[in-house]
Amino acid sequence: MDELLDRLTRLAAEAEQAFDASAAGRSVCALHKRGATTNRLKYCEGRDYAARRLLKAARSATGKERLEQVLNELERKNRAIKSSPILSGADWQASADGVLSLVAEVRILLEEMGEDDRQIEN
Q1: Counting Cβ atoms within 10 Å, is residue 59 exposed (0-12), middle (13-18) or buried (19+)?
Q2: What mean pLDDT is predicted for residues 3-31?
Q3: Domain residue ranges in the chain
Q4: Where are any strands of DSSP class E within the chain?
């Protein structure tokens, strides 16, 4: 589990750096108010959000179960956003794409490490 936590920590740090870079040092709230958000910013924001949620889940007392729950929850909710006619705006779609890309990356990571949902040790 230590290697998994290390890799999730790196993914979270990379996601945060990409998000910060896409905001170019400006406040996200200010960008939203000015209508200056970009698809790239929203994509990075989605990845950052997912990375933080997954890292928190993996660090919990029930890391094995909680990580799988959060992976499934993030995937389910963001697939629903992708197919929603109400949430079809570019910001919503880009954010959902970011979340889903991070979820897919973590699932691949788990497969590569040989630690699928039945084998993750706390």
Answers
A1: middle
A2: 87
A3: 2-113
A4: none
